[in-house]
Protein backbone atom coordinates (compact mmCIF):
# COMPACT_ATOMS: atom_id res chain seq x y z
CA UNK A 1 0.00 0.00 0.00
CA UNK A 2 1.38 3.38 -0.94
CA UNK A 3 1.53 6.27 1.50
CA UNK A 4 1.68 6.58 5.25
CA UNK A 5 -0.84 4.62 7.35
CA UNK A 6 -1.41 7.56 9.68
CA UNK A 7 -2.16 9.81 6.71
CA UNK A 8 -4.50 7.15 5.29
CA UNK A 9 -6.62 7.32 8.45
CA UNK A 10 -6.17 11.08 8.83
CA UNK A 11 -4.68 10.89 12.34
CA UNK A 12 -1.52 12.02 14.08
CA UNK A 13 1.33 9.65 14.85
CA UNK A 14 0.57 9.82 18.60
CA UNK A 15 -3.13 9.04 18.13
CA UNK A 16 -4.78 6.89 20.79
CA UNK A 17 -6.46 3.55 20.04
CA UNK A 18 -9.86 5.22 20.40
CA UNK A 19 -8.89 7.85 17.81
CA UNK A 20 -7.68 5.11 15.47
CA UNK A 21 -10.95 3.20 15.91
CA UNK A 22 -13.11 6.29 15.30
CA UNK A 23 -11.17 7.26 12.18
CA UNK A 24 -11.42 3.72 10.82
CA UNK A 25 -15.17 3.47 11.44
CA UNK A 26 -15.78 6.76 9.69
CA UNK A 27 -13.73 5.84 6.61
CA UNK A 28 -15.01 2.24 6.49
CA UNK A 29 -18.58 3.49 6.31
CA UNK A 30 -17.61 5.97 3.60
CA UNK A 31 -15.70 3.65 1.29
CA UNK A 32 -17.29 0.23 1.84
CA UNK A 33 -18.02 -1.29 -1.60
CA UNK A 34 -21.63 -2.00 -0.64
CA UNK A 35 -22.37 1.69 -0.15
CA UNK A 36 -19.81 3.46 -2.35
CA UNK A 37 -19.80 2.49 -6.02
CA UNK A 38 -17.47 5.25 -7.18
CA UNK A 39 -14.26 4.27 -9.02
CA UNK A 40 -11.40 3.78 -6.61
CA UNK A 41 -13.62 3.38 -3.54
CA UNK A 42 -12.82 -0.33 -3.17
CA UNK A 43 -9.06 0.31 -3.36
CA UNK A 44 -9.41 3.08 -0.83
CA UNK A 45 -11.39 0.73 1.43
CA UNK A 46 -8.58 -1.84 1.26
CA UNK A 47 -6.02 0.83 2.15
CA UNK A 48 -8.08 1.93 5.15
CA UNK A 49 -8.42 -1.68 6.33
CA UNK A 50 -4.69 -2.32 6.01
CA UNK A 51 -3.85 0.88 7.92
CA UNK A 52 -6.27 -0.06 10.70
CA UNK A 53 -4.97 -3.64 10.82
CA UNK A 54 -1.44 -2.41 11.49
CA UNK A 55 -2.09 0.58 13.76
CA UNK A 56 -4.70 -1.16 15.94
CA UNK A 57 -2.19 -3.86 16.88
CA UNK A 58 0.33 -2.34 19.37
CA UNK A 59 3.11 -4.75 18.35
CA UNK A 60 2.65 -4.20 14.62
CA UNK A 61 2.31 -0.46 15.15
CA UNK A 62 5.61 -0.38 17.02
CA UNK A 63 7.32 -2.24 14.17
CA UNK A 64 5.76 0.10 11.64
CA UNK A 65 6.85 3.21 13.56
CA UNK A 66 10.41 1.90 13.66
CA UNK A 67 10.84 0.26 10.28
CA UNK A 68 7.93 1.52 8.14
CA UNK A 69 6.14 -0.81 5.70
CA UNK A 70 9.11 -3.19 5.71
CA UNK A 71 8.49 -3.91 9.38
CA UNK A 72 4.97 -5.21 8.80
CA UNK A 73 5.14 -6.50 5.24
CA UNK A 74 3.61 -9.95 4.79
CA UNK A 75 5.53 -12.75 3.15
CA UNK A 76 4.28 -14.49 0.05
CA UNK A 77 0.83 -15.81 0.73
CA UNK A 78 0.95 -14.58 4.34
CA UNK A 79 -1.94 -12.90 6.02
CA UNK A 80 -2.60 -11.03 9.23
CA UNK A 81 -0.04 -11.26 11.98
CA UNK A 82 2.71 -12.79 9.84
CA UNK A 83 6.24 -12.45 11.16
CA UNK A 84 9.81 -12.82 9.92
CA UNK A 85 10.27 -16.40 11.05
CA UNK A 86 10.66 -17.72 7.51
CA UNK A 87 13.62 -15.89 6.01
CA UNK A 88 14.29 -18.48 3.33
CA UNK A 89 13.77 -16.07 0.44
CA UNK A 90 16.04 -13.47 2.03
CA UNK A 91 18.78 -16.06 2.61
CA UNK A 92 18.47 -17.30 -0.95
CA UNK A 93 19.10 -13.77 -2.25
CA UNK A 94 22.33 -13.50 -0.28
CA UNK A 95 23.33 -16.98 -1.36
CA UNK A 96 22.85 -16.08 -5.01
CA UNK A 97 24.81 -12.84 -4.71
CA UNK A 98 27.82 -14.21 -2.89
CA UNK A 99 27.95 -17.50 -4.80
CA UNK A 100 28.44 -15.40 -7.94
CA UNK A 101 32.08 -14.74 -7.07
CA UNK A 102 33.19 -18.22 -8.08
CA UNK A 103 36.41 -16.80 -9.56
CA UNK A 104 37.33 -15.61 -6.07
CA UNK A 105 37.06 -19.04 -4.52
CA UNK A 106 33.54 -18.59 -3.16
CA UNK A 107 31.44 -21.67 -2.40
CA UNK A 108 27.75 -22.13 -1.81
CA UNK A 109 25.76 -24.36 0.49
CA UNK A 110 22.28 -24.85 -0.88
CA UNK A 111 19.29 -24.46 1.38
CA UNK A 112 15.97 -26.22 0.98
CA UNK A 113 12.85 -25.15 2.86
CA UNK A 114 11.16 -28.43 3.60
CA UNK A 115 9.69 -27.77 7.04
CA UNK A 116 6.05 -27.13 7.95
CA UNK A 117 4.45 -24.05 6.43
CA UNK A 118 1.61 -22.26 8.21
CA UNK A 119 -1.60 -21.83 6.22
CA UNK A 120 -2.82 -18.46 5.01
CA UNK A 121 -5.11 -16.29 7.11
CA UNK A 122 -8.49 -15.57 5.54
CA UNK A 123 -10.89 -12.66 5.70
CA UNK A 124 -14.69 -12.65 5.63
CA UNK A 125 -16.96 -9.59 5.58
CA UNK A 126 -20.18 -10.29 7.48
CA UNK A 127 -23.31 -8.15 7.54
CA UNK A 128 -25.36 -7.95 10.71
CA UNK A 129 -28.81 -6.60 11.38
CA UNK A 130 -29.01 -3.67 13.79
CA UNK A 131 -30.29 -5.74 16.72
CA UNK A 132 -27.81 -8.55 16.04
CA UNK A 133 -24.97 -6.09 16.53
CA UNK A 134 -26.49 -4.82 19.76
CA UNK A 135 -27.32 -8.09 21.47
CA UNK A 136 -24.86 -10.44 19.77
CA UNK A 137 -25.44 -14.17 19.58
CA UNK A 138 -24.44 -17.09 17.40
CA UNK A 139 -24.14 -16.68 13.64
CA UNK A 140 -23.67 -19.45 11.11
CA UNK A 141 -21.30 -18.67 8.28
CA UNK A 142 -19.94 -20.55 5.26
CA UNK A 143 -16.27 -20.12 4.51
CA UNK A 144 -14.36 -21.57 1.53
CA UNK A 145 -10.85 -22.57 2.55
CA UNK A 146 -8.16 -25.16 1.97
CA UNK A 147 -8.43 -28.28 4.10
CA UNK A 148 -5.88 -31.07 4.48
CA UNK A 149 -6.76 -33.89 2.10
CA UNK A 150 -8.17 -36.75 4.17
CA UNK A 151 -7.24 -39.32 1.51
CA UNK A 152 -3.48 -38.75 1.53
CA UNK A 153 -3.35 -36.96 4.93
CA UNK A 154 -1.65 -33.99 3.31
CA UNK A 155 1.26 -35.85 1.71
CA UNK A 156 -0.04 -35.39 -1.84
CA UNK A 157 0.88 -38.99 -2.65
CA UNK A 158 -1.48 -41.74 -3.65
CA UNK A 159 -2.12 -44.06 -0.68
CA UNK A 160 0.47 -46.83 -0.64
CA UNK A 161 3.07 -44.73 -2.49
CA UNK A 162 5.55 -42.10 -1.38
CA UNK A 163 8.04 -39.53 -2.58
CA UNK A 164 11.54 -39.95 -4.02
CA UNK A 165 14.50 -37.64 -4.31
CA UNK A 166 14.13 -35.16 -7.15
CA UNK A 167 16.41 -36.26 -10.02
CA UNK A 168 16.87 -32.71 -11.27
CA UNK A 169 18.29 -31.13 -8.12
CA UNK A 170 19.29 -34.30 -6.24
CA UNK A 171 17.19 -33.27 -3.27
CA UNK A 172 18.60 -29.77 -2.78
CA UNK A 173 15.51 -27.98 -4.06
CA UNK A 174 17.69 -25.64 -6.14
CA UNK A 175 19.42 -25.67 -9.48
CA UNK A 176 22.56 -23.74 -10.34
CA UNK A 177 23.81 -22.47 -13.64
CA UNK A 178 27.37 -21.23 -13.98
CA UNK A 179 28.31 -18.44 -16.38
CA UNK A 180 31.91 -17.64 -17.27
CA UNK A 181 32.90 -14.04 -17.97
CA UNK A 182 36.19 -12.17 -18.30
CA UNK A 183 35.74 -11.17 -14.65
CA UNK A 184 35.35 -14.69 -13.35
CA UNK A 185 32.76 -17.42 -12.95
CA UNK A 186 29.28 -16.37 -11.78
CA UNK A 187 26.60 -18.74 -10.54
CA UNK A 188 22.86 -18.19 -10.70
CA UNK A 189 20.78 -20.18 -8.21
CA UNK A 190 17.05 -20.69 -8.66
CA UNK A 191 14.27 -22.90 -7.37
CA UNK A 192 14.18 -26.30 -8.96
CA UNK A 193 11.40 -26.31 -11.58
CA UNK A 194 10.79 -30.05 -11.21
CA UNK A 195 10.08 -30.24 -7.47
CA UNK A 196 9.33 -26.53 -6.90
CA UNK A 197 11.98 -26.38 -4.21
CA UNK A 198 10.74 -29.37 -2.24
CA UNK A 199 13.69 -31.63 -3.03
CA UNK A 200 11.31 -34.53 -3.54
CA UNK A 201 8.84 -35.56 -6.19
CA UNK A 202 5.74 -37.67 -5.68
CA UNK A 203 5.74 -40.98 -7.53
CA UNK A 204 1.96 -41.11 -7.95
CA UNK A 205 -0.20 -38.11 -7.09
CA UNK A 206 -3.24 -38.45 -4.87
CA UNK A 207 -6.31 -38.50 -7.10
CA UNK A 208 -8.42 -36.64 -4.54
CA UNK A 209 -6.23 -33.52 -4.30
CA UNK A 210 -4.08 -33.80 -7.44
CA UNK A 211 -0.91 -34.05 -5.37
CA UNK A 212 -1.43 -30.73 -3.58
CA UNK A 213 -2.13 -32.30 -0.19
CA UNK A 214 -4.97 -29.81 0.33
CA UNK A 215 -8.41 -29.36 -1.17
CA UNK A 216 -10.75 -26.40 -1.47
CA UNK A 217 -13.77 -27.01 0.74
CA UNK A 218 -16.66 -24.89 1.95
CA UNK A 219 -17.14 -25.26 5.67
CA UNK A 220 -20.00 -24.23 7.93
CA UNK A 221 -19.00 -22.49 11.13
CA UNK A 222 -20.88 -21.08 14.08
CA UNK A 223 -19.24 -17.97 15.48
CA UNK A 224 -20.20 -15.97 18.55
CA UNK A 225 -20.95 -12.29 18.01
CA UNK A 226 -20.33 -10.40 21.28
CA UNK A 227 -22.92 -7.78 22.30
CA UNK A 228 -22.13 -4.20 21.28
CA UNK A 229 -20.12 -4.76 18.09
CA UNK A 230 -20.10 -1.98 15.50
CA UNK A 231 -19.00 -1.31 11.93
CA UNK A 232 -15.44 -2.45 11.43
CA UNK A 233 -15.23 -4.70 14.50
CA UNK A 234 -12.82 -7.55 13.72
CA UNK A 235 -13.27 -11.03 15.16
CA UNK A 236 -10.50 -13.62 15.06
CA UNK A 237 -11.45 -17.28 14.71
CA UNK A 238 -8.31 -19.28 15.43
CA UNK A 239 -7.23 -22.09 13.09
CA UNK A 240 -10.09 -21.66 10.64
CA UNK A 241 -8.04 -20.25 7.77
CA UNK A 242 -6.31 -22.33 5.11
CA UNK A 243 -4.70 -25.58 6.23
CA UNK A 244 -0.91 -25.53 6.38
CA UNK A 245 1.30 -27.61 4.14
CA UNK A 246 3.79 -30.26 5.20
CA UNK A 247 2.10 -30.53 8.58
CA UNK A 248 2.03 -26.80 9.22
CA UNK A 249 -0.64 -25.19 11.41
CA UNK A 250 -3.78 -23.76 9.86
CA UNK A 251 -4.11 -20.00 9.50
CA UNK A 252 -6.76 -17.90 11.22
CA UNK A 253 -10.04 -16.52 9.97
CA UNK A 254 -10.70 -12.80 10.48
CA UNK A 255 -14.34 -11.74 10.33
CA UNK A 256 -15.00 -8.04 9.71
CA UNK A 257 -18.47 -6.91 10.78
CA UNK A 258 -20.66 -4.36 9.02
CA UNK A 259 -23.98 -3.32 10.56
CA UNK A 260 -27.04 -2.60 8.45
CA UNK A 261 -28.93 0.61 9.12
CA UNK A 262 -32.28 0.49 10.93
CA UNK A 263 -35.38 2.31 9.71
CA UNK A 264 -36.23 3.59 13.20
CA UNK A 265 -33.07 3.64 15.30
CA UNK A 266 -29.69 5.27 14.88
CA UNK A 267 -26.56 4.54 16.84
CA UNK A 268 -24.21 7.06 18.41
CA UNK A 269 -21.48 5.12 20.18
CA UNK A 270 -23.24 3.26 22.99
CA UNK A 271 -26.37 5.41 22.74
CA UNK A 272 -29.41 4.79 20.55
CA UNK A 273 -31.33 7.68 18.97
CA UNK A 274 -34.93 7.77 17.77
CA UNK A 275 -37.84 10.17 17.39
CA UNK A 276 -41.47 10.19 18.50
CA UNK A 277 -44.26 12.51 17.39
CA UNK A 278 -46.99 13.70 19.78
CA UNK A 279 -49.96 15.98 19.23
CA UNK A 280 -49.88 19.56 20.44
CA UNK A 281 -52.47 18.68 23.09
CA UNK A 282 -50.32 15.82 24.40
CA UNK A 283 -47.35 18.16 24.53
CA UNK A 284 -49.37 20.80 26.41
CA UNK A 285 -51.14 18.51 28.86
CA UNK A 286 -48.54 15.75 29.15
CA UNK A 287 -49.23 12.05 28.71
CA UNK A 288 -47.87 8.53 28.95
CA UNK A 289 -47.04 6.63 25.77
CA UNK A 290 -45.62 3.28 24.76
CA UNK A 291 -42.42 3.86 22.79
CA UNK A 292 -40.46 1.30 20.82
CA UNK A 293 -36.95 0.41 22.01
CA UNK A 294 -34.54 -2.36 21.09
CA UNK A 295 -35.87 -4.17 24.16
CA UNK A 296 -39.50 -3.83 23.06
CA UNK A 297 -42.24 -1.38 24.07
CA UNK A 298 -41.52 0.77 27.12
CA UNK A 299 -43.88 3.27 28.78
CA UNK A 300 -42.52 6.81 28.71
CA UNK A 301 -43.88 9.96 30.35
CA UNK A 302 -44.23 13.12 28.27
CA UNK A 303 -44.18 15.96 30.81
CA UNK A 304 -46.81 18.72 30.50
CA UNK A 305 -45.50 21.64 28.48
CA UNK A 306 -42.97 19.62 26.54
CA UNK A 307 -41.37 21.75 23.82
CA UNK A 308 -40.60 20.57 20.28
CA UNK A 309 -37.24 18.74 19.93
CA UNK A 310 -37.03 18.01 23.63
CA UNK A 311 -34.80 14.97 24.22
CA UNK A 312 -36.00 12.44 26.79
CA UNK A 313 -33.51 9.87 28.08
CA UNK A 314 -34.33 6.24 28.82
CA UNK A 315 -31.39 5.06 30.88
CA UNK A 316 -29.74 1.68 30.25
CA UNK A 317 -31.76 1.09 27.08
CA UNK A 318 -28.86 1.67 24.71
CA UNK A 319 -26.01 -0.48 23.37
CA UNK A 320 -24.06 -2.85 25.66
CA UNK A 321 -20.45 -1.82 26.02
CA UNK A 322 -18.20 -4.14 24.04
CA UNK A 323 -16.49 -6.45 26.50
CA UNK A 324 -18.80 -5.42 29.36
CA UNK A 325 -22.33 -6.33 28.34
CA UNK A 326 -23.71 -5.53 31.80
CA UNK A 327 -23.09 -1.83 31.22
CA UNK A 328 -25.28 -0.19 28.59
CA UNK A 329 -25.71 3.24 27.07
CA UNK A 330 -28.98 5.19 26.95
CA UNK A 331 -31.85 5.55 24.51
CA UNK A 332 -32.32 9.23 23.61
CA UNK A 333 -35.75 10.07 22.17
CA UNK A 334 -36.38 13.39 20.44
CA UNK A 335 -39.99 14.59 20.82
CA UNK A 336 -41.57 16.12 17.73
CA UNK A 337 -44.83 18.08 18.14
CA UNK A 338 -47.47 17.81 15.42
CA UNK A 339 -49.29 21.14 14.98
CA UNK A 340 -52.28 20.60 12.68
CA UNK A 341 -52.87 22.74 9.63
CA UNK A 342 -56.63 22.08 9.74
CA UNK A 343 -58.96 21.79 12.71
CA UNK A 344 -62.71 21.32 13.12
CA UNK A 345 -65.04 24.19 13.91
CA UNK A 346 -65.57 22.84 17.42
CA UNK A 347 -61.82 22.65 18.02
CA UNK A 348 -61.42 26.19 16.73
CA UNK A 349 -64.10 27.52 19.10
CA UNK A 350 -62.47 25.82 22.09
CA UNK A 351 -59.03 27.09 21.16
CA UNK A 352 -60.36 30.61 20.64
CA UNK A 353 -61.84 30.49 24.14
CA UNK A 354 -58.42 29.48 25.45
CA UNK A 355 -56.79 32.25 23.45
CA UNK A 356 -59.27 34.73 24.90
CA UNK A 357 -58.35 33.60 28.43
CA UNK A 358 -54.69 34.10 27.57
CA UNK A 359 -55.39 37.52 26.10
CA UNK A 360 -54.19 36.49 22.64
CA UNK A 361 -55.52 37.86 19.37
CA UNK A 362 -57.25 35.26 17.16
CA UNK A 363 -57.70 37.16 13.93
CA UNK A 364 -56.70 35.66 10.58
CA UNK A 365 -53.57 33.72 11.24
CA UNK A 366 -53.87 34.49 14.92
CA UNK A 367 -54.61 30.92 15.98
CA UNK A 368 -51.43 29.65 14.41
CA UNK A 369 -49.53 32.46 16.10
CA UNK A 370 -51.16 31.57 19.41
CA UNK A 371 -50.11 27.93 19.13
CA UNK A 372 -46.64 28.98 18.11
CA UNK A 373 -46.27 31.20 21.17
CA UNK A 374 -47.41 28.35 23.41
CA UNK A 375 -44.61 26.12 22.22
CA UNK A 376 -42.04 28.86 22.44
CA UNK A 377 -42.87 29.30 26.11
Automatic annotation (TrEMBL):
Localisation per UniProt entry: Cytoplasm
InterPro entries per UniProt: DnaJ, DnaJ_C, DnaJ_domain, DnaJ_domain_CS, HSP40/DnaJ_pept-bd, HSP_DnaJ_Cys-rich_dom, HSP_DnaJ_Cys-rich_dom_sf, J_dom_sf
Assigned keywords, A-Z: Chaperone, Cytoplasm, DNA replication, Metal-binding, Repeat, Stress response, Zinc, Zinc-finger
Record text about domains: The J domain is necessary and sufficient to stimulate DnaK ATPase activity. Zinc center 1 plays an important role in the autonomous, DnaK-independent chaperone activity of DnaJ. Zinc center 2 is essential for interaction with DnaK and for DnaJ activity.
Primary subcellular site in the record, as a coarse category: cytoplasm
Name of the gene this protein is made from: dnaJ
Name of this chain's protein: Chaperone protein DnaJ
Keyword ATP-binding: no
Source species of the chain: Spirulina subsalsa FACHB-351
CXXCXGXG motif repeat intervals: 149-156, 166-173, 192-199, 206-213
Similarity comment: Belongs to the DnaJ family.
Binding note for cofactor: Binds 2 Zn(2+) ions per monomer.
Residue intervals of the J domain: 4-68
Quaternary organization: Homodimer.
Alphabetized Gene3D superfamilies for the sequence: DnaJ domain (1.10.287.110), Heat shock protein DnaJ, cysteine-rich domain (2.10.230.10), Urease metallochaperone UreE, N-terminal domain (2.60.260.20)
Amino acid sequence: MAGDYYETLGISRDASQDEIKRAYRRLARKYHPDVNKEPGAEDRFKEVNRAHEVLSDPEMRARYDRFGEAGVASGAGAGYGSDFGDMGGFADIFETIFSGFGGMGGTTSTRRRSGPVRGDDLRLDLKLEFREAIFGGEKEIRIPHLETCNVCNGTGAKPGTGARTCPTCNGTGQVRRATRTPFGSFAQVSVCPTCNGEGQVIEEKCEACGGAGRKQETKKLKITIPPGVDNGTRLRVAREGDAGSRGGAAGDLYVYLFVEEDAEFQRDGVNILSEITVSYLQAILGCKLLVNTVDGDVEMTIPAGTQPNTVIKLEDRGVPRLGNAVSRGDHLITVKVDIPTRITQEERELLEQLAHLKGESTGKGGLEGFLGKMFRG
